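Changelog-adjacent note: as of this version, every example in the card shows the full chain rather than a window. The one below runs 434 residues end to end.
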Amino acid sequence: MNALTDIEKFKGEKLSPGDALPAPASIGHPGSRTIRAGFIPLVDAAVLIASAEFGFAEREGITLELVKDVSWANVRDRLAFRQFDIAHMLSPMPVAAMLGLGSNPSPVITPFSLGRGGNAITLSTRLYRRMQDEGTLGGREDALANATALAAVIRKAQAAGEPPLTLGVTYPFSSHNYEFRYWLAAGGIDPDRDVKLMVVPPPMTSDALAAGAIDGFCVGAPWNMVASELGVGRIVATKQDIWPSAPEKVVGMRPEWAETHPETVSRLIVALDRAARWADAPENRDTLADVLADERYVAAPADIIRRVLAGEFTIDPEGNRRVIDDYFVFHSGFANVPRPSQALWTYSQMVRWGQAPFSDERLAASVSAYRPDLYRRALGADAAPADADTGPRGATPDDRFLDGHVFDPGRMEDYIESFAIRATGRSQLPIEDG
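Full-length structure tokens:
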């Protein structure tokens, strides 16, 4: 009997993948245990936070102890050193861990994705004005046009002998790093030659932009809108513009912990599944935003978080707005399934940008990071689509990439070689720290 069936005994519920659930009444479960979870103050920690705050974890006999941390490197290390049982992690982090990349590498797997969306690329208002002066934008919100305009500014700056722009990402092995690089390269900018990339913790990005320490950044919500509301930044691209179905954050855990606590892992997945359904429901956004705004969690204005959850963006200091459907997806469309093909795309970008060499052994290690088998064990065989393990990404109109490329996991080397801009040596962004 899987954990979901066990829970249905309590309330007689019949759940289907699209159902949104109310917050449960407090019903204890024999064998309750505490799970210590590290997280970074971002809106995409919502499912973990909702699980703890609204009784979903308690309903499964779990006390979810959330610990707010300051950097992804800290989260990685504290998970490895057993200070955390599980962690809110960037979707590429388990892949990097299974490849042995970075400092203090320790195996990490993920049986659950926390959703899609939430990232954006923000440039300083002064840099965006230079892009407008090139005369090619005309107020458009097209992400590719913005990248092309930035390339024109960079070429002019290079000709004048100006120092390269400095752009911030949150971690070397992050969706932000790969999405920022993908966007830059799509516009004709070599991220290892034409600009300087540096690691900036998410809550510090807006202040760093305002101080002129960086010229732009790619980060998760709500910090892009915070920069635009402060009048220091212009949002020029979002995650949906680059790869709409890309996973964003995942739940990471040590393989040995998962093997030692199989029932706990299943009950945790059930709790997270129910919390994700709840968080996806529009009628719950106000409640969720109020909780996320708390100092214990994201510590940002509730109004900004509420608009971010709805995909309603103020993209610049002038108050221009953009509405993005499904900017955050916490559950629908099988958003919680950890697809090995997504891990393979991440590995393709690690190879593309010189973080790792290509080999069949590393392909296998990448796939091992994402565990749909544990997801199915908890929620049932039909909880994940049949192609979750092997299906290509980017092959359908609603799963496009910014530049029109299609990712086929079966032709990885051809895919990597198809890009005109890729690393010819080691990545310029350090990978030993974060």
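Structural remarks: The two ends are 42 Å apart (CA to CA).
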